[in-house]
Specification:
- Helices cover 74% and strands 0% of the residues.
- The chain has six helices and no strands.
- It has helices spanning 3-8, 13-29, 43-57, 62-75, 82-114, 118-126.
- Helix 3 (43-57) runs antiparallel to helix 4 (62-75) and helix 4 runs antiparallel to helix 5 (82-114).
- The chain crosses the membrane at residues 46-76, 88-111.
- Keywords: Membrane, Transmembrane, Transmembrane helix.
């Protein structure tokens, strides 16, 4: 047995082959092509979903709540296409982020116009 081969290349060829197989399995685990591939979603489906959410979102206050509820239903339903579920989760994160930023800007504008400090305004809104 060659000492250098033993240190740098594993114990034997079988050990090396097992490591290679394990590496391929690990690499394929995060591959885009796996066993649970979903069907391609048609453009008309994407168009309909986004149009519906945009129209519902235009309704003041109730629309925002309805969009969040719909996105939660889509994101965590087991019988909806995986691509649509992932899109709904991403859209939900962006929607909530935009809602929070919008509320903070709205509070800042109202507090600057009324002369009340923003921290007082936030405390008033939260209580």
């Amino acid at each position: 047995m060659d000492y250098n081969n033993h240190i740098f290349h594993g114990y034997n060829n079988n050990h090396k082959n097992n490591n290679l197989k394990a590496h391929k399995r690990k690499k394929n685990k995060h591959s885009y092509r796996n066993d649970d591939t979903a069907e391609v979603v048609a453009v008309s489906t994407w168009f309909t979903i986004t149009l519906l959410l945009a129209l519902i979102g235009m309704i003041p206050i109730i629309g925002a709540v309805a969009v969040i509820v719909i996105l939660l239903a889509i994101a965590f339903s087991s019988d909806i296409n995986k691509n649509i579920q992932n899109w709904a989760i991403a859209y939900l994160i962006w929607f909530i982020l935009a809602l929070v930023i919008g509320l903070l800007f709205g509070i800042a504008i109202v507090s600057s116009m009324s002369g009340i400090s923003m921290s007082d305004m936030i405390n008033h809104v939260l209580t």
